[in-house]
Amino acid sequence: MSQQKDTFDSLVPVAMIVAMAKNRVIGVDGKLPWYLPEDLKFFKRMTQAKPLVMGRKTYASIGKPLPNRLNVVVTRNAEFSHEGVRVCHDLPAALELADQHATIEAAEEIMVMGGGEIYRQALPFAQRLYITEVDIDVEGDATFPDFDANEWQEVQRVAGQPAEGQPNYDFVVYERVAD
């Protein structure tokens, strides 16, 4: 399912949004390995009115379309359908659909929201990364791909406000360095 970077040219910037542990873990058994209410609020604020692109497993973990956003699910399963979502069978088609929607709706960016395989495929297309860096190492079965720090510049870092018993975390924004 790997794609070359030149298989999709976006009119609207592509961003990726994720919460990950220090060891890059983003999920375990289809769930987040932590509960950080402020991160969920951050996710909602950053994705509101923007088209979302996600894999089928990520969609299944949510269980319903997220409101006020185009929900595009990428799956190889030709039988998959769900009310309130658009289905594409490869990432470039999903990004193209999201790009068309974003252009019509004047959304500022397309948001890729996982899971691990979709992130790996989308990284070459992304211009921005919204990463909640969670200050723990956890066991998990889904990870965020490693990215070359030389290709990205940190443009914002805001410390989270963890509740009692929650790990520390930062909201970090990276932008791709121009070639």
Automatic annotation (TrEMBL):
InterPro entries: DHFR (IPR012259), DHFR-like_dom_sf (IPR024072), DHFR_CS (IPR017925), DHFR_dom (IPR001796). Pathway: Cofactor biosynthesis; tetrahydrofolate biosynthesis; 5,6,7,8-tetrahydrofolate from 7,8-dihydrofolate: step 1/1. PROSITE patterns: DHFR_1, DHFR_2. GO terms for molecular function: dihydrofolate reductase activity; kinase activity; NADP+ binding. GO terms for biological process: dihydrofolate metabolic process; folic acid metabolic process; one-carbon metabolic process; tetrahydrofolate biosynthetic process. Its EC number is 1.5.1.3. Transmembrane segments: none annotated. Residues 13-176 form the DHFR domain. It comes from the Bacteria. Coiled coil: none annotated. It catalyses: (6S)-5,6,7,8-tetrahydrofolate + NADP(+) = 7,8-dihydrofolate + NADPH + H(+). Belongs to the dihydrofolate reductase family. Key enzyme in folate metabolism. Catalyzes an essential reaction for de novo glycine and purine synthesis, and for DNA precursor synthesis. This is Dihydrofolate reductase.
